[in-house]
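Hi W.,

Here's what went into the run:
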Amino acid sequence: MIRNPERPARKEAQEIRQEVKRSRGLKLSSEGKENLAGYLFLLPWFAGLILLTAGPMISSLYLSFTNFDLLSAPVWVGLQNYLAMFQDLRWLNAVKVTLIYVFLSVPLKMVFALALAMLLNRGLRGLAIYRAVYYVPSLLGGSVAIAILWRQIFDTSGLVNQVLGWVGIKSATSWISSPNYALGTLIILAVWQFGSPMIIFLAGLKQIPMEYYEAATTDGAGKLNRFWHITLPLLTPIVFFNMILQMVGAFQAFTPAFIVSGGTGGPVDSTLFYTLYIYQEGFGNLHMGYASAMAWILLIAIALFTTIAFLSSRYWVFYQDERK
Amino acid sequence: MMKATYNRRQVLQMGAASAAGLSFLAACGGSGGSSTTATKHLQLFFWGTTSRDKLTRQAIQLFDQKHPDVKITSQFTDFNSYWNKLSTQIAGGGAPDLIQMDMRYIAQYVKKGLLLDLTDPIAKKTIDLSDFDQTLLKGSLVNGKSYGIPLGGNYQAQLYDQDLIAKANVGELPATFTWDEFGTYCAKLAKALGKGVWGTADESTNITAFELWTRQHGRDLYTTDGKLGFTQQDVSDWFTYWSGLRKSGACVPIEIAAGAMTGGTPTTNLVKGQAVFNLTLSNLVDAFQALMQHKVGIHMTPTGGTGAQPGMYLKTSQLLSVSATTKYVSDSTSFVGFLINDPGAIKAINVERGIPGSAKAKALLQPTLTPSQQLVLSYVNSVTQSGNARPKEVLDPAGAGAIEQSLMRTAQAVGFGKTSIADGAKSFYADAQKALSQG
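Here's what came out:
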């Protein structure tokens, strides 16, 4: 709408009001029609969100305040489930195991992914093939088959001990069955699934303008300096994005521990992930109220860590378009 | 595609994707259900393997032919997920009409009023138990009433590797042994067989073995009023015994034992050739033999020695129960009766669920048994006559599953030296008490 500067302001305001009124009417403008179509397309997703996610979530919130064994009606117990957690040694252990897993596997996986992304970002021929090959573990890694394979590799007579044997280290340790190493093997399994952060890093690396490097090289900056002062700062948004995604995923890891330990979280609870404990309590011991409460604490913990990450990002994530 | 620059809003949007975290919560409030819309459609739910499914469906087919107005649909899954699925179905209001039950769970289900009292159909001979094994039947009662008919029975048993015993050549396998004699014999076996093979699997984690030990001391795991029947001293004696076997090399090292715990029968030390003995249940001979090249033998479990009580008991391998909420009481109960008494059905389901309780059924199946099934049948008969068995009259209370898990964890922690025997016994006893109080 082209405004006539000579028109009195009052009249203009009236016109705008009328226009707003019109657009609120039943008769849709073409823009409105487009939006409607969009919402219609979104409808199945909304239905899924409400029926399969929001509904069960609300009922799980309710159940978390009850004593519920699945077989008979839930009984309201107030905050009892939440308070019980802090006296539950297995719960405390599950928290410890999960935190160790998250804070070791996520940084290691990201370092690994970035290193490989940089290796692949040197104008290699057949890059697409390498990219695909390195991505494969990410597709397979969460699967049951790989978790079973993992058990074989780290078993007494598994691949790891054989390789150690070749280099002269005799080992009969069953890495997967030892409470000291079992969690380590699961962390390695997680790191091995570096594919998706690697692909994202690779895309990010490709977008860093070459001029920066050329200018830096002219000024005599070495490889390390270029990495430290150009690559890394320009990549921080991607690092941040990957970090959030991987962290949230790691908090919820379930399958590897479930399969590798045969559902027990053993040996001696050394691989008792938080989610595995929720599963054991909810479905194994039929303490569904307690399990629901634990799930909500997990949600709060994930939200808390994500918030901390976002708050801290102000100090280390560098957005080019916000440079002042 | 990715852009070179990211503004804060874009990254925030990406972060929102992390709301995927919510999905796990959703999984904890879910409910499932099944629907039986047709007038005489019955649902049967059981755990087992595909071969059990095949046999079960043959029996169902025979039943459907005789009852044209009834259609039974069956579903099956493995033991561990069975209980999750069953409880979820019940929570969703869609309990199956016919439910396969286990002795460890039945008390809990009866307490919640989920199973039909079968006293009436038994009295009316819809379910005819006139020639049924009384020990088996007695062991399956809850509060003196029948809520499920045993489909088979089995005893605790030491399965062993016959080829390894022959190879070790340390003398004849004694007909019976006490726990101490068993330990000495296993140490000899281990010494003779050399590196990588031990006498027995580590049973310190095995609640079935610990139950035998407790019963031989004249107690049961639980009392009739739902308290713990064993003492903290029993636990520490038990841990001490196994710690001795570990030291003498009679039993597999703890790491090997932990490895055995991860994948059911295929990963047991007996199947992997790491141990000669493995304590389990008698109906598993076929399951072990199928996974092994060496020949599997079956032997009575260690006895308590002089002055001890018999420890073994005929355990109901599984029961068939009827849902308390079924719309078709008479059809459901007549299917239960059919399954244990109809010659066609008996032949169809065979001894795959354990040795049947009906004398007629046993006689009918006798000539058709394979050699390993014969072995199991004669073992069951010989234990009954040996005087090493006495009926188990106390049901496992709710919380028994958690106690089983706790024994496994604590015994492992003791084995790995993460805790002392005294502390381990104390913490297991406390855990068990807590599990019972929580139900």
